[in-house]
């Protein structure tokens, strides 16, 4: 699996780089013509369970998370952190990331690279580097579809390449309410390790930049194949998050808050 996946990822990155370099639509060009400036955004959330690809990262316990992100034009870089619990003294996950975001009319493209670091773990690390491509397309002013693909070369815990992919849809059905669903696949070059996950939920934004999300998560992993008991079980997760622009606090009427990676 290693060599073919590496060739695919490299080809995709080269092709996307060419696309990102192409001129965007007239509206995007007009916006780009304006003087660029640094923007700084931040956010925090509390969740009943930190879920990643359909598996609990906190042994079914709550998590407190936060991020800080700087953008300049189409470029961005940031840091995101959360508590974790893998029953082996890995207590904190910190993600360092950066990349390029562009919009072409109704299409948004984001090509980034992430470094996942896990602290307080004395044994072999989970640390990994991921190349991540995220896309979204506005079908209407209320319906948006998304597609993401990630590639991790030589993932330490399985000593093989990892591919993650997912597709989703979001519907803003009433003022401050929206519903969304996602389905994804995690593909690892180890027999019996591949699985499919999915989620569906509703989000409510009672105040600007404050969101409450309630979501059902599940996957097709058999209990016997779950690395940590119960972390692969189906569950309902509630998350309260707040996002704000530090730039706006210093300079009102500036650009809106950037999306966390």
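^ structure tokens above, recovered residues below v
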């Amino acid at each position: 699996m290693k060599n073919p996946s590496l060739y695919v990822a490299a080809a995709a990155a080269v092709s996307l780089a060419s696309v990102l370099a192409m001129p965007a639509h007239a509206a995007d060009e007009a916006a780009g013509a304006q003087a660029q400036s640094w923007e700084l955004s931040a956010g925090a959330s509390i969740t009943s369970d930190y879920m990643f690809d359909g598996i609990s990262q906190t042994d079914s316990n709550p998590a407190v998370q936060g991020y800080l992100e700087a953008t300049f034009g189409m470029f961005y870089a940031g840091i995101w952190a959360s508590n974790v619990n893998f029953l082996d003294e890995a207590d904190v996950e910190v993600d360092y990331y950066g990349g390029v975001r562009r919009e072409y009319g109704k299409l948004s493209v984001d090509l980034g690279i992430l470094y996942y670091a896990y602290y307080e773990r004395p044994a072999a690390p989970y640390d990994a580097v991921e190349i991540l491509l995220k896309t979204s397309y506005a079908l209407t002013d209320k319906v948006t579809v998304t597609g993401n693909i990630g590639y991790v070369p030589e993932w330490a815990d399985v000593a093989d390449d990892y591919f993650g992919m997912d597709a989703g849809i979001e519907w803003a059905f009433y003022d401050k309410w929206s519903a969304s669903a996602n389905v994804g696949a995690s593909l690892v070059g180890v027999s019996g390790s591949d699985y499919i996950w999915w989620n569906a939920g509703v989000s409510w934004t009672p105040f600007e930049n404050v969101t409450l999300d309630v979501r059902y998560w599940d996957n097709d992993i058999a209990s016997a194949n779950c690395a940590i008991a119960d972390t692969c079980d189906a569950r309902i997760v509630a998350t309260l998050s707040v996002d704000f622009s530090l730039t706006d606090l210093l300079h009102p009427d500036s650009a809106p808050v950037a999306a966390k990676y």
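The chain has one domain: 2-250.
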